[in-house]
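Re: [ENG-882] Designed sequences occasionally contain unexpected residues at chain ends

Forwarding the minimal case from QA. Structure tokens:
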């Protein structure tokens, strides 16, 4: 579980190759841990068989059954394997949902700041973004329900991110119920990206939006993957749960090949993760909880001008640096002065200006080095 910086720098993934070698990357949402042993073993066995032909039909692989059994067990969410389909990427599937379930010019509600591809997907498909900023509450970012309700009048789709990237909010049942009422009142289709669902950091259990009731399920497509929690994004396998036959039928107007293929290694890895990855995930969550506490303590002690709510889920910390008055975007400052690459706030929509996202899905040593470098850069400035 504890690769060193030198070992990590040998990786070929985007996280470790975009910046110069003296920069510590804490930007893209990949973690730095070793693979879960069952995932590694399943991949090794497949390679040992030289078994990289076209993947078997996932219906035969039992992947949907496995996903549904786990959803029932982990989230008390009862879904049928026949409503589950597998794709390549969650983001790609967001585009496909927008293209098949809405019309050009339709309004799409998005809670900002937001994972940047949400904004790109709406823009690039010619839909109309209706941005509803989360607001700073006493202890967490909150939904401005009245503002969202007002914006929903011009909307066709709610593009939900739950848990929310970048704030790490895991919406409560009450908050989700408020969103559900809005969706019902305004007859919205809900695309619910729940890719971070397995990364809940508190005792609370993830509540799938579609699990709120049959009338909500019927208007919701839930998108998820094993990729965030098990750190296998490069294997490209995503999962969609269609809450009604009519949504599925509209989606199916898209020719099958436009959806792309499913990676054989991705299917193998997801099956192993979902079947046997539980103990590894628990160990990983314990590290993430400790790292979350390290980050929060560091901000409280060293950075009085930076605002931060510890996330309830994900391994991403959102730092509002506006009060630092850096005179430039903080990601630029920290890249140049600290040699740390952070998520670039403005790419998360207008409320992201002056903010950065730090990825703490790394070893405690590397996280401490990231925080120390950032503190030293700020100290040199004053
Ligand atoms: C909310 C959210 N959705 C989707 C993705 C990416 O999913 P995929 O690689 O399957 O497109 C990420 C990656 O960080 C994410 O945070």
């Amino acid at each position: 579980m504890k690769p060193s910086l030198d070992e990590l720098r040998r990786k070929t993934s985007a996280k470790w190759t975009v910046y110069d070698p003296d920069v510590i990357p804490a930007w893209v949402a990949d973690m730095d841990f070793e693979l879960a042993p069952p995932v590694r073993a399943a991949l090794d066995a497949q390679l040992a068989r030289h078994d990289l032909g076209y993947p078997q039909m996932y219906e035969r692989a039992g992947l949907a059954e496995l996903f549904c059994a786990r959803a029932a067990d982990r989230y008390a969410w009862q879904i049928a394997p026949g409503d589950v389909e597998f794709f390549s990427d969650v983001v790609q599937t967001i585009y496909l949902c927008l293209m098949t379930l809405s019309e050009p010019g339709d309004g799409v509600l998005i809670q900002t700041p937001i994972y940047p591809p949400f904004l790109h997907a709406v823009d690039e498909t010619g839909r109309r973004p209706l941005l509803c900023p989360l607001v700073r509450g006493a202890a967490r970012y909150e939904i401005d329900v009245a503002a969202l309700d007002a914006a929903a009048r011009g909307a066709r789709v709610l593009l939900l991110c739950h848990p929310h990237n970048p704030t790490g909010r895991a919406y409560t049942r009450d908050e989700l119920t408020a969103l559900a009422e809005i969706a019902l009142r305004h007859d919205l289709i809900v695309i619910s990206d729940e890719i971070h669902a397995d990364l809940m950091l508190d005792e609370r259990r993830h509540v799938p939006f579609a699990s709120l009731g049959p009338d909500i399920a019927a208007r919701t497509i839930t998108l998820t993957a094993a990729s965030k929690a098990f750190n296998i994004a490069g294997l490209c396998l995503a999962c969609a749960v269609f809450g009604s036959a009519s949504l599925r039928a509209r989606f199916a107007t898209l020719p099958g090949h436009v959806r792309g293929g499913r990676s054989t290694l991705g299917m193998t890895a997801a099956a192993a993760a979902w079947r046997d990855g539980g103990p590894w995930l628990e160990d990983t969550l314990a590290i993430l909880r400790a790292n979350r506490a390290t980050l929060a303590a560091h901000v409280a002690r060293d950075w009085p001008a930076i605002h931060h709510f510890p996330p309830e889920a994900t391994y991403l910390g959102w730092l509002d640096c506006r009060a630092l008055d850096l005179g430039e975007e903080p990601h630029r400052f920290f890249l140049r002065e600290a040699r740390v690459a952070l998520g670039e706030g403005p790419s998360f929509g207008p409320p992201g200006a002056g903010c950065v996202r730090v990825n703490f899905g790394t070893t405690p040593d590397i996280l401490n080095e990231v925080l120390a470098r950032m503190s030293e850069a700020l100290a040199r400035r004053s």
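QA comment: On inspection the terminal residues look reasonable. The pocket of pyridoxal-5'-phosphate is lined by residues 29, 89-91, 115, 161, 165, 193, 195, 225, 227, 233, 238 (CB under 6 Å). Proposing we downgrade this to a documentation issue.
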